[in-house]
Amino acid sequence: MSKTKDQIAEALAKTGYVADEGLATALVLTEMLNRPLLLEGEAGVGKTEVAKALARLEETNLIRLQCYEGLDRSDAIYEWNYQRQLLAIKAREGSGDDANSVEEAVFSEKYLLERPLLSAIRQAEAPVLLIDEIDRADEEFEAFLLEILSDYQVSIPELGTVEAVTIPRVVLTSNGTRELSDALRRRCLYHYVDYPTPDREARILLSRVSGLDASLALQIAELMGKLRKEDLVKVPGVAETIDWAAALLGLGAKDLHENRELVFDTLTCVLKTREDKSRVTVEVTDRLLGKVA
Amino acid sequence: MSALHFETREDLGAVLRARLAGFVRSLRDSGFKVGMAETSDALRLLQTPLVHRQDRLKASFRTLFCGRLADWKKFDELFEAYWVGKGVKSGVKVSGTSPRKGMKTIRELVDAQGNRQDTIAGNVERQPGEEDEETGETPSGRREGASIAENLGQIDFRKMEDPEALKQAHELAEKLARSMRVRLTRRDRQKRKARRLDLRRTIRHSIAHGGTPLELIRKGPRQQQLRLVVLLDASGSMNNYTGVFTRFVHGILDNFREAEAFLFHTRLVHVSSALSERDAGRALDRLGLMAQGVGGGTKIGEALADFNRWHAARVIHSRTCVMILSDGYDTGAPDVLGEEMARLRRRCRRIVWLNPLIGWEGYEPSAGGMQAALPHVDLFAPAHNLESLAALEPYLARL
């Protein structure tokens, strides 16, 4: 074990990510066992941030593959640069080269377009590979991914097999749009990312919003905790909290109790739908504030 | 961790392996998908200093053995029960379980917290013969779950009085919709070819560049997916079924990328947005609000007319299956219903009419409205229990 859990948590905190115990352990394990880490949780709890923080921590590149419906091999692994190939063929037309050598030339490294997955295994230094929102990709893509994650090699029919130069540290995230296959789940270590506790959220705020007072940070974090328990269409995530804290700070708020109106007016930072806006009225805000210690 | 203090190193290896194997078995029994790879990784972990700190070992095992949120939620208790409890093999005391039964084995614990289906099914429907089988041997947790789900599948929704059983049925209905979606789209995918180069059009376009096909044209858009449009009858006569159907519809909307839902009683309400709420309970609450004002009977014909006039053009395309969930008791004029059904029929690929009454013995679709609608329906099927909902899948797959 190169780093212990505490060292990881501490190092992550330095990069601006406040990790809880479980996550730090999971990160230690991914390194130890060399397995991808699957992070599940509601939108906005900071899953993607984990990968970014990890890349900062390891001082390495972050390669991101954003998944979407219809994502396929050529978007994720590699693609031939057809246009350049055609031009190259055209250019050689009069040169008298035989067909074989032309073919060899156009199906060479020069005409290969690397996409995130191929690029991730060909980096000189092991990068962090973030496969974001894997649940949005189709089942068949998941199968490709399994192949790559187990062998760390890609076979390109015209070129042969490309083996990994380095094995990336893989982080997958999922919002649960679609049930992932058992095969993929089994390949990965699993961590469920929950909304942070007020204490942790306050620490996140302090690390992200400079000039924020600790007691105000805790007030905001606690209010967010209460707000998330309300019946909202779109439950605000950590990023919203950060925006809100910055807004409150910018408007000169010192204490939430003394600035009730300001709190209500700035709720627009965290409530993102019309229904939610109309649900959290002045009275509700007061009630929530009343509960804040 | 007292259980992990050993005399010699060799002991440690053998005993730990055995203990770990037992733990893995108990996890599997409670539905965890744990394979050899996880077990050997766990063994590696046990050879590291992690062993000395119980909380760290738990966190490590949790991240290693869990695969989904459901696992995540029950892991801690299973871990405590196995590794921390005393007299582990025979039985462990579990905090938070019923006081009258202080001692429970892990399997009992698993049954108690995982799926309480055995008791539920027992309350709902128990044939005299079945009882002996269940108490005789303890089958593994997972298989038990499956067989009970089957049991539950056959019970008519209107006979489910036990709220727990009904809740279970709701969940199953949603799960069913989900698995249907996975399989239906898979079939769809297998048929579909990848987007290939359209050589003919590529060459045609290359004329402008003197024959060099610089612009590559791909074959047309992907084949459209099956779209489901659900019209749910929420009138008083459907009362016993609306709950389960809404959950089914919620499952469909949540899982089919292409689905729309409408609810009708005396008028038609577009409910896709209310049902697209992730949290099923919340979705149902919102739906309940929208269904308010029910009364005065069902006007299926008028609701359909409304649909045809205002929504059909937008929500129906050539690969659309319209699914009507209704008992066909119409207080409007049968002619209107027949006419609107004919109009609808011309627009969509299929009309499936699911009628919970078909499941009843001796049912004849004699109501005037039903008679008028039938000629335009492609499939008239029962939908009084989960099994009948599941039976639809192969039909939808052929669309």
TrEMBL record, chain A:
Superkingdom of the source species: Bacteria
InterPro entries listed in its UniProt record: AAA+_ATPase, ATPase_dyneun-rel_AAA, CbbQ/NirQ/NorQ/GpvN, P-loop_NTPase
Residue ranges of domain AAA+ ATPase in the record: 33-199
Name of one Pfam family that matches: AAA_5
Signal peptide: none
Protein name in UniProt: MoxR family ATPase
UniProtKB/TrEMBL annotation, chain B:
UniProt xrefs under Pfam families: VWA_CoxE
InterPro entries referenced in this protein's UniProt entry, alphabetically: UCP010256 (IPR011195), Uncharacterised_CoxE (IPR008912), vWFA_dom_sf (IPR036465)
Highest taxon of the lineage: Bacteria
Region (Disordered): 115-146
CDD domains found in the cross-reference section: vWFA
UniProt name for this protein: VWA domain-containing protein
